[in-house]
Design brief:
single chain; mainly beta; Immunoglobulin-like; 2 domains; 8-stranded antiparallel beta sheet; globular
Length: 370
C-alpha cells in the first residue's frame, strides 16, 4: 500500500466537498466527516491567533455561482435534478396511461448520481412509443424505439435513464407504452438514491441484473483502480480530506447486494493530465441463463467527457451463457479519454492515508484471482 501512496505523490490533493443544488435528502458524506473527527486535536488551543482574520472567508479560493440553483428545477422531470433519455421528447402534461395490458419491465431499484438505469421491456406485442415519468413530478419523456430485439413473437426494448450528477432523492418511476391509440397500464418502480463519494472525475458502471461485473480505471501514471486496489482517503494538515478509489464493488463474487452499480471517483486535485482507460469485466456470471446489458458513463466536473476511443456512455451486453475469462486484462476496453487540465506534482507523503477497506466478498475475489 505504501508503494501505491508513493506513486500517487505525482498527483495532487485537497477535495472541496460540493454542496448539493437539488433537493437534499439530509445525508452527508459520513465517512469523510468521521475521518476528520478521528484526527481532530481532542484538546485544541483555546488562545486565538492574534494575526488571524476575524472574519475569514468561508470559501477561500472559490468563486461560487451567485445563483447556483438557476439552472435546476426539482419540480419538473427535465429540470436537471433527475434523469434524461436520449432521443426522447419532453412533454409538460400528465404521463399517458390506459388499460391495454400491463408492461413487463425489469430495472434496478437503486441508482447512483451520474449513473444510468436500464429499463428492459419484454412483450409479445410491438409498441410504437414509450412514456417515462416520475410520480409527483410534472412532465414526462416520450421515447420512440428505433432499435429493438424481435424473435419468435417476442419483442425486447431497452430504455436508458441517464441520471444527473445532481440527483439525490428517492423517486417512483412510471412507465407506460402505446400501440396505435391503445395505451398500456402504468408500470411503477420505487428507486432508492444511493449516496456516493464526490469528486471531479466520476466513472459509473450500471448493469441490469444481479451479476458480478467489475469496473476498472487506469490512470495516466498507470494506477489501476478496481476491486483489487480500491484506493482510499487522504487527510492533509489543513484538515481537508480527498478520496480517490472504487466506491462500490457490487455483487462481489455473487454475494448479491442488488445495487448493480459500481463507481470510481477521483477528486479534482488528484486528476492527472493524460489518457485514462476504462474497462468492464465479467468476473462472475451469477446467472448464465440471462443476458446482461451494461452502460458506462464518465463525467468530468459534471460534463460528459469526449472519448479518444469508444463512446460515452459506452454500452454493451454480456450474452446468455457468457463465461468469465480470468487473465491479466479485463474483458472489454469500454473507452479511452484524455484530460488536459489535470494537475500533478504535489507532495502528499505527509498526508494521513485511510484505505478504502474491501468487503469480505471483495477479499475473496482477490484471493481467487491470484
Amino acid at each position: 500500500m505504501k508503494t501505491k501512496i508513493l506513486v500517487l505523490a505525482a498527483v495532487v490533493l485537497l477535495l472541496g466537498i460540493s454542496i448539493p443544488s437539488c433537493l437534499d435528502n439530509g445525508e452527508s458524506t459520513i465517512v469523510l466527516e468521521s475521518i476528520k473527527a478521528q484526527n481532530q486535536d481532542p484538546n485544541p488551543d483555546p488562545t486565538p491567533d492574534p494575526n488571524s482574520d476575524p472574519n475569514p472567508d468561508p470559501n477561500p479560493n472559490q468563486n461560487p455561482d451567485p445563483n447556483p440553483d438557476s439552472q435546476l428545477d426539482e419540480t419538473t422531470i427535465n429540470g436537471g435534478c433527475y434523469f434524461q433519455i436520449r432521443d426522447a421528447e419532453f412533454y409538460g402534461d400528465n404521463i399517458p396511461s390506459g388499460s391495454c395490458g400491463v408492461l413487463d419491465v425489469n430495472m434496478n431499484n437503486r441508482v447512483l448520481a451520474g449513473g444510468t438505469n436500464i429499463a428492459t421491456i419484454v412483450s409479445s406485442v410491438q409498441y410504437d412509443k414509450f412514456y417515462v415519468g416520475i410520480k409527483g413530478v410534472s412532465g414526462y419523456y416520450e421515447y420512440v424505439p428505433e432499435n429493438f430485439y424481435h424473435e419468435d413473437g417476442t419483442y425486447v426494448y431497452t430504455i436508458s435513464l441517464e441520471y444527473s450528477m445532481d440527483y439525490q432523492r428517492d423517486i417512483e418511476v412510471q412507465i407506460s407504452a402505446s400501440r396505435g391509440d391503445c395505451v398500456s397500464g402504468m408500470f411503477t418502480q420505487d428507486i432508492k438514491f444511493v449516496k456516493s463519494q464526490e469528486g471531479a472525475l466520476n466513472v459509473v458502471l450500471t448493469f441490469d441484473n444481479d451479476k458480478d461485473l467489475d469496473l476498472h480505471v487506469v490512470t495516466p501514471s498507470g494506477i489501476e483502480i478496481y476491486y483489487g486496489y480500491q484506493g482510499g482517503f487522504f487527510e492533509f494538515s489543513n484538515g481537508e480530506v480527498a478520496f480517490m478509489g472504487l466506491d462500490h464493488d457490487s455483487n462481489a463474487g455473487c454475494a448479491i447486494d442488488g445495487l448493480n452499480n459500481e463507481n470510481i471517483v477521483i477528486s479534482d486535485e488528484f486528476v492527472e493530465p493524460g489518457e485514462y482507460k476504462v474497462y468492464v469485466d465479467l468476473f462472475s456470471n451469477c446467472n448464465p441463463t440471462i443476458a446482461t446489458n451494461w452502460t458506462c458513463t464518465v463525467r468530468y466536473k459534471g460534463e460528459l467527457v469526449q472519448t479518444r476511443t469508444g463512446s460515452n456512455p459506452a454500452v454493451g451486453v454480456f450474452p446468455i451463457g457468457a463465461t468469465e475469462i480470468w487473465n491479466d486484462e479485463p474483458d472489454i476496453l469500454a473507452m479511452t479519454f484524455v484530460v488536459s487540465t489535470g494537475k500533478s506534482g504535489i507532495e502528499i507523503s505527509n498526508a494521513s492515508f485511510t484505505p478504502n477497506q474491501p468487503s469480505r466478498a471483495s477479499l475473496q475475489k482477490i484471493a481467487r484471482k491470484r
